[in-house]
């Protein structure tokens, strides 16, 4: 049984989403899987981007349709965020992948990322995505372990602005 649930953000999530954002900014960390949350000036601005990205006809230039989920625990605490891109553009194929995710620093090292990725793969099945590309920085050993734990197979490594990106494929027909 899962400790987490993936839920779609709503306007009622303003406080917990902005608190999540502040924790990342305070710790000077990247915010993967958050659909431009770091760059948004307000919750409402971020929420509009989230809404626009849900559909092909409203997705903004340079983006692909995607669904961003909040990963919440039984107490409704926001543990992490995960973004599922419905298709890949050239950049995502080379560096970003289908799924991006983050777990707040105060909740790491408890297996939440592995659980979140597993739940996201179930959503990928619902979207009809049969092969999922997940990438990580080669130095992010924890993320590589998360991907491997969910059936990822390393295809290759590619450089992006002096950073080595590992590209893993997860074939959903092979998930146990």
Account of the 3D structure:
It comes from Holtiella tumoricola. Residues 35-176 form the N-acetyltransferase domain. Pfam families: Acetyltransf_3 (PF13302). GO terms for molecular function: acyltransferase activity, transferring groups other than amino-acyl groups. This is GNAT family N-acetyltransferase. This protein is α+β, with helices and mostly antiparallel strands. It has one domain (5-174): 3-Layer(aba) Sandwich (Aminopeptidase). Helix content is 32%, strand content 27%. The protein is built from 5 helices and 7 strands; from the N terminus they run βααββαβαβαββ. It has helices at 14-26, 43-53, 90-96, 112-127, 141-149; strands at 5-7, 66-72, 78-85, 99-103, 131-137, 153-160, 163-171. The strands form 2 sheets. Strands 1-2-3-4 form a 4-stranded antiparallel β-sheet, with helices on both faces. A 3-stranded antiparallel β-sheet has the order 5-7-6, sandwiched between helices. Strand 2 (66-72) and strand 3 (78-85) form a beta hairpin. The radius of gyration is 15 Å and the shape is globular. The protein starts with a strand and ends in a 5-residue tail after the last strand.
